[in-house]
Amino acid sequence: MNQQTCLSEHFTLGELCKTSVKAENVPGEKEIGNLRRLCRWLEMLRSRWNMMYGEGDDPLIVNSAYRSAEVNRAVGGVPTSNHLTGCAADIRVAGLEQLIRYATILLDISDESKEDFDELLLERNKAGRYWLHFAVRPSGNRRKVRMI
């Protein structure tokens, strides 16, 4: 598959594998399947956001999704990261309010669909920037919700 391969209406393989690390970051078929599952949730989040709060066609920007083991080590990811299997995405937000709204939308989607997710982590770095880490596995989802 090439980087332009569409995983869903608004997300490409290249977008979900981008990295600034100088290392190979190419997922296998299993990881691509997981990325497609993840994209279903991202599409629902994007759609609801635009329906409720957005300008009608606001993009959802993914900072990081699939990571090879080498990329994961280089960025300081944990060895058990859902990013390694294509099950997680770090989603850019404009600030705390958007972070909370995104999290609420994903919780609502989970409750309504009766589908669980693995992780919903509201994160902030030392510089004060926020992002949302969201993960969904093929099975064994833990519905872990935390502010980090």
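Second entry:
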Amino acid sequence: MTRVGNVFGGGDSLSLSNGGTDVFLDVLTLSVSDLAHDTWDYRFAALLTLQDQNVMGRGAVGFDLEEIDWGATPAARARAKDFVVRVVGLALRRHRWDELGYEPPFAEGYLRRFRAMVEAFDPADAVHRDGGGFPGPGEAAVASCVPHRVLSALPYWDGCRFCQSAAGQKP
């Protein structure tokens, strides 16, 4: 699928401006970094870390729920979906937002919409493609940025999304 702009979701999607995308991913990164503890969790975290517009380019990120490898069994799919819902729920509780250095006024709306999309999504409908956009087990985000206490995309790039933004590339 070819994307124009930043789109998250699938059939029902969340289309965000570049600034909205940064905010959405900032607050999700804080939450996923504190909740991840299983291989699949770290794979989902890697998916989020790879959406950094400072590296990938403005307007060139996003993912579809249908392309995520949710798991091979109904139990694995339910657990993965529950994890994503918990990550969004933690972000909705403004987890670590005081560390952002800015007030994200629209983040709650983005998160509510994304959570509703995930809750309505049936992971059995996912179309897992080898080489697709969802990181494999060997690509899981296990590196942590010490200064920001979040998972990062090392070894793909030099720092986490907050390090990249501190380099002056984020508005």
